[in-house]
Amino acid sequence: MSNKKGTKSNMKSFEEKLKIAQDWSQNPIPWKELGAKYNVSYSRARIWALGYQENGEQFLKDISTRKGQRAGISKGKTYRNNNINPDKREIAKLRKELKEKEMEIEILKKWNDFVEDIDNDK
Q1: What is the C-alpha separation between 103 and 97, in angstroms, rounded?
Q2: pTM for this entry
Q3: Is the domain of 15 the same as that of 54?
Q4: At CA 121, angle to CA 117 and CA 122, rounded to 5?
Q5: Is 30 left (phi over 0), alpha (psi -120 to 50) or beta?
Q6: Which residues of the chain fall short of a pLDDT of 50?
């Protein structure tokens, strides 16, 4: 089977993914070099290495199954977001709300300045 570039598709087994992740853990090299070394895309190598670093072998086992691939775990987003500390999640939510409120205040200040300028011109 070929991909868009015409090269053969290379599915990696759990053991190969583990080897790539452990190699990067022991010797952090640029993602592009790591991908070239193992003939995978740099983004794939990055996802496997960081997923392994954050969640251990279970992450690689999960994405090595067809069920994990269909669930979107192979992208890493779904799996990693489930392991975020609830306190950190709440802090992030509050920071976002605070930023929105600050933006709202700035807009209202500018609106008031605009209205005052119109009143002064009259």
Answers
A1: 10
A2: 0.48
A3: yes
A4: 125
A5: beta
A6: 1-4, 6, 71, 74, 76-77
